[in-house]
Amino acid sequence: MAEIAVVAISVAKPGYEEQLRKALEGIVGPTREEPGALQYDLHRDVQEPRRFVFVERWASKEALAAHAASAHIAAYKKAVADWVEHAEIRVVSKIA
Predict the structure, then answer these.
(1) Coil, strand or helix at 36
(2) Sorted alphabetically, which PROSITE patterns does this protein's record hold (predicted)?
(3) What angle do CA 23, 25, 29 make, to 5 degrees?
(4) In Å, what is the CA distance from 36 to each residue of 13, 72, 80?
(5) What is the mean pLDDT of each run of 10 residues along the chain (96 residues)?
(6) Against a cut of 0.90, is the pTM above it?
(7) Is 25 helix (H, G, I), strand (E, B) or coil?
(8) Chain CA centroid to CA 14, Å
(9) CA 7 to each of CA 15, 30, 55, 89, 95: distance values in angstroms, whole numbers, following the listed order
(10) Domains of the chain: which residue ranges?
(11) Residue-level pLDDT at 1
């Protein structure tokens, strides 16, 4: 299995920054307990506080797929649907 990394960005709609922050913080614990979760760290952009960034490392593509299909991620997506202006997920591989 090859380790995989992810950068996931969520931008809150104006006025929904704190609701989105709390929802994102709520998925950190359950995700860190998932099989294959090596790193799952939430960050907030210093210059753009509506932008939240996850830096993730997974043991395999399969572990990442299981995470994406998990109940807590489905519930999160449903809860924040009206709070997110933009979301982007980038799967990356380390080259150096």
Answers:
(1) coil
(2) ABM (PS51725)
(3) 120
(4) 32, 16, 25
(5) 92 98 98 98 98 97 96 96 97 88
(6) yes
(7) helix
(8) 19
(9) 24, 18, 5, 6, 15
(10) 4-92
(11) 58
